[in-house]
Write a structure and sequence with these properties.
With about 350 residues, the chain is of the alpha/beta class. About 30% of the residues lie in helices and about 15% in strands. Strand 13, helix 7 and strand 14 form a beta-alpha-beta unit.
Length: about 350
């Protein structure tokens, strides 16, 4: 299988082309620092060619549901150090995903009653599970031009913490309607300063974040994630191929380790081909891939690596199962965010069957 062959990604020679997708699992502590159970979870999946961690907030003003992860305080760094050490002990490679939620922050949990920030004062559509039940996304406050440098610096400090923790690299989360994605898209960015208007201006915040993070890790240890057609919570763009093709060309010029895109293998109007043409490094694709469709994507040249989400939740030994073409454990959706070991570190493996099996 081509999926199981080695590949060079930035500084690293990966042992296969299977990537563990970043996935929020709500298992960090009250202070948002990873617990020992989180370290075991990632270590169990260390045979992946590359692990990308769950998204980790870079700022106390990037607030999500309880027990999600962060990397801006010393306890966060200490928790992630345990994770990196556990993965490295089993021969794995792990990148930390960094993000700022922007307008998708939980307004009921913002410190001091602060208002979420965004490129423009346009709320996301829908609701978030707030402290006292579902609440509508807040109308965000549009960032002042001179405030943006401070958020870029938060990404820089978070990357520094990740490096101290021993992470092998960084994935910058430019997807899913979060702050970087909000700047990129023309339906959420109506600015008239140097961060708004044409695609080059809308990509300026991304570029500044990339430059800050590569200043800490080096370009060959940094990737970026896009979701060009994912209209989650009302995010959209009038010409995603042009917008994300431009963004991919910008990061290609900086020689980043990879670009990671969320796009189904059977997308009706794929944007991945525009990104593939613009970015001259390894491309990771992600969204509902199976063993067969992943192999086909690599064999066709549409991608170099494939990321798996729910399959990795339920199958810690996914590489071994793909190699043997063995049956897969079905994921238990009811345990995805329940905070316990159940459905987190207790899935059976080929060499450790379920109790009573």
């Amino acid at each position: 299988m081509k999926l199981l062959t080695p590949i060079r990604v930035g500084r690293y020679e990966l042992r296969n082309r299977m990537v563990m997708s970043p996935m929020a699992r709500a298992r960090s502590g009250e202070d948002r620092a990873p617990t020992p159970m989180v370290a075991e979870y990632y270590a169990q999946r260390a045979t992946a060619g590359l692990i990308v961690t769950e998204a980790s907030s870079v700022s106390p003003l990037s607030v999500s549901r309880p027990h999600t992860s962060a990397i801006y305080l010393d306890p966060h760094t200490a928790g992630w150090r345990r994770v990196a050490q556990a993965v490295h002990a089993r021969g794995g490679v792990i990148f930390q995903q960094l993000y700022h939620l922007g307008r998708k922050c939980d307004p009921s949990r913002m410190p001091g009653g602060a208002t979420p920030v965004a490129p423009s004062a346009i709320p996301a559509q829908g609701q978030v599970q707030g402290a006292n039940g579902p609440v509508a996304f807040a109308t965000p406050r549009a960032l002042e031009t001179d405030e943006i440098a401070g958020i870029v610096d938060e990404f820089r400090r978070a990357a520094t913490n990740a490096k101290i923790a021993g992470m092998d690299g960084i994935e910058i989360h430019g997807a899913n309607g979060y702050l970087i994605d909000e700047f990129l898209r023309d339906n959420s960015n109506k600015r008239t300063d140097r961060y708004g208007g044409n695609a080059a201006n809308r990509a300026r915040f991304l570029l500044e974040v990339v430059e800050a993070v590569t200043g800490v890790f080096g370009a060959d240890r940094v990737g970026v994630r896009f979701s060009p057609q994912r209209g989650v919570d009302g995010i959209d763009d009038s010409d995603p191929a042009a917008t994300f093709g431009y963004a991919a060309a910008v990061v290609s010029d900086l020689k980043l380790a990879y670009v990671h895109i969320l796009e189904p293998f059977n997308a009706a109007a794929p944007v991945g081909s525009a990104i593939r043409k613009a970015f001259h490094g390894p491309l990771i694709v992600n969204s509902g891939y199976t063993r067969e469709t992943a192999e086909a994507a690599i064999a066709s040249g549409a991608a170099d690596l494939v990321a798996f989400g729910a399959l990795y939740i339920a199958n810690p030994d996914l590489v071994e199962r793909f190699r043997a073409n063995a049956p897969l454990n079905p994921p238990d959706l009811t345990t995805f965010h329940n905070g316990s070991a159940k459905g987190y570190i207790d899935y059976p493996t080929l060499d450790r069957p379920a109790a009573g099996a």
